[in-house]
Design a protein that fits this description.
The protein is of the alpha+beta class. Helices cover 29% and strands 25% of the residues. The protein contains 17 helices and 22 strands.
Length: 594
């Protein structure tokens, strides 16, 4: 017989009754029933109930064992009595009658119990992540993650993609976030950067003669945590293809994501095909380039209705260049005044002046705005926004981008509060035709709005003849249920077009040569048209696991302050190590006491 187990804790069935078997695992929980002691024994695969009577010689040893201790038990498989069968457990028809027992590893008092689904503070959970991962929900999330990655890998290989690994120590790149820098011992004063994405390398793979590349790629960004973004590192399904148009990328990637969601979505619907939404339409209709299509609310432009109207606040704002976006609230006419007041208060906390509103009820238009609009204007609002008697409508008035952002956030809240969003469904879309450039109000200059290596629609002619803010790029995002899963683009493979694009964004040719010389030089020796995308693995698993926070699907995540509480990182290092790296630390001045 094997030293530790003949079966896992999920294998035994009623067909095994009478066999002598051996199991090993953690003591999940103990139950004392007077003359009997029950132990639920757990391993990676499942749970088996074990039992021992008080008159057995080894009973005191078994009774003394604490929860989460690791034990090995040997005994006969017996059938449970009819009233003791547990239909919710795969092994629920049998139990193991303990005849021999060995304590492999004793557990001390637990900082947090594993049995049960109680919530514990994040600090305790992350400091003792190995205990947290033993809990069923989290354990299953990590198993799901492994299966999802395997499925993604298989789907890519089935389409003829080859898996390559790109460097981790590389040069800094303007991907839109801070780099993690690694000092070089051999080159004093110089630093490597951990890749924010394998962007340049995967393009170089195409220029090296390979046709279809993918990688489950680790990416590193020194940015703040969010519910859908882990600080420090994340993983993406990195993809690049040669000789492709935007449509070719869509046709390759859409089936991969469709299949993985269908395989692991359970009873949730995966809606296909993915709809295409231009960026400008997404901002107009949904107030976001990450629209949640489960929400039926569609925003509309009612700027002209308020132009020259009796509602002076909006009328004056419109004359000074503001726009007015309408946010319908279907069925909100029956809501109490507090519903509308709550939305107004929320808008003020967002930095806006508030959300104006109108209530259409019993054939009348009610509210402060309605009192200042004539019947024709009220009728126009109803027609444009598609609202009728019994509905409400909110308004966001500001400069175009700010009005869109406020309206988009309000749309999400109203949809949730009114409980009108579709449930148990994954609704995907491609957001396309992103602006190539945007104006940075802070820096007072043009900059890239998306990926700097993208091909502009219209090529060099567009860059030389069009208003930069009117130029669109072959850039695209995949969005699902309001969460961006991926960004991608058809790449700029022509040196002269790349140099012109960077020139418009304020980069001198010498800077481009210095920072992107490796890729730029490769372009000079024949670069195929190519494009790619990089769906986020962590976010895919988070959605499939129906978890609100990405840390619930990562094996060993950092906390929101980018600290690994379990391994105590980051940490100071000895002066000797710093001297070897030619580094001296300069601590920030302490904050003054208030």
């Amino acid at each position: 017989m094997h030293s530790y187990r003949t079966h896992t804790c999920a294998e035994l069935r009623d067909s095994d009754v009478g066999k002598t078997v051996r199991l090993s695992g953690w003591v999940h929980r103990k139950r004392d029933h007077g003359n009997l002691l029950f132990i639920d024994l757990r391993d990676h695969y499942g749970i088996t109930q074990c039992v021992i009577e008080t008159d057995v010689a080894i009973f005191p040893e078994v009774e003394a064992v604490r929860s989460e201790s690791v034990i090995t038990v040997t005994g006969k498989v017996v059938a449970r009595l009819d009233d003791a069968i547990n239909p919710n457990l795969p092994t629920g028809q049998i139990e193991l009658d303990i005849e021999d027992f060995e304590l492999q590893s004793a557990a001390e008092d637990l900082p947090m119990p594993v049995f049960g689904e109680q919530e514990y503070p994040e600090e305790i959970r992350l400091r003792h992540r190995y205990l947290d991962l033993r809990r069923e929900r989290l354990h299953n999330n990590i198993i799901l993650r492994s299966k999802v990655i395997s499925a993604l890998r298989t789907s890519m290989q089935d389409q003829g993609f080859m898996e390559f690994q790109t460097p981790i120590l590389t040069a800094s790149s303007p991907e839109g976030a801070r780099d993690f820098l690694v000092p070089s011992r051999m080159h004093p004063g110089q630093f490597y950067a951990l890749p924010q994405a394998p962007q340049q390398f995967k393009q170089l793979v195409m220029m090296s003669g390979f046709d279809r590349y993918f990688q489950i790629a680790p990416c590193f960004r020194d940015e703040d945590a969010r519910a859908d973004r882990s600080p420090g590192e994340f993983y993406q399904l990195d993809i690049e293809m040669a000789y492709v148009t935007q449509e070719d990328v869509f046709n390759a990637v859409e089936p991969v994501l469709t299949k993985v969601f269908q395989d692991f979505a359970g009873d949730r619907i995966v809606e296909t095909p993915f709809v295409r939404i231009p960026f400008s339409e997404a901002m107009m209709k949904y107030g976001s380039d990450k629209p949640d299509l489960r929400n039926p609310i569609i925003l509309s432009d009612v700027t002209d209705v308020f132009r020259g109207s009796g509602f002076g606040l909006f009328a004056k704002s419109v004359e000074s260049g503001s726009v007015v976006r309408a946010i319908p609230a279907p069925g909100a006419g029956s809501k109490a005044r507090s519903f509308f007041d709550k939305m107004n208060e929320w808008a003020r906390k967002e930095g806006a002046g508030g959300l104006g509103y109108i209530i259409f009820k019993d054939g009348e238009a009610k509210g402060p705005i309605a009192k200042n609009l004539d019947p024709d204007r009220l009728a126009q609002i109803q027609e444009i926004a598609g609202v009728s008697d019994g509905d409400g409508i909110f308004f966001a008035c500001d400069k175009e981008l700010k009005a869109a952002e406020l309206a988009g956030k309000a749309r999400n809240i109203v949809g949730q509060d009114l409980d009108i969003c579709e449930k148990n469904i994954f609704k995907f879309c491609w957001v396309i035709d992103f602006p190539m450039f945007e104006y940075d109000e802070k820096e007072k200059k043009l900059d890239f709005s998306h990926n700097p290596f993208s091909m502009p629609q219209g090529g060099l002619e567009a860059l030389e003849t069009m208003d930069p803010l009117e130029i669109k790029g072959y850039q695209y995002d995949i969005v699902c249920n309001g969460i961006e899963l991926s960004s991608g683009a058809i790449r700029n493979h022509r040196p002269e077009i790349m140099m012109k694009a960077f020139e418009i964004a304020g980069y001198d040719a010498s800077v481009v040569e210095e920072r992107f010389g490796g890729m730029l030089n490769a372009f000079k020796y024949g670069a195929p048209p190519h494009g790619g995308i990089a769906p986020g693995v962590d976010r895919i698993v988070m959605m499939l696991a129906d978890e609100p926070n990405i840390r619930e699907v990562i094996l060993f995540p950092m906390n929101q302050q980018a600290q690994d509480l379990m391994m105590q990182a980051p940490a100071e290092v000895p002066s000797k190590n710093l001297r070897e790296l030619h580094i001296r630390t300069v601590m920030p001045d302490p904050k003054p006491q208030s």
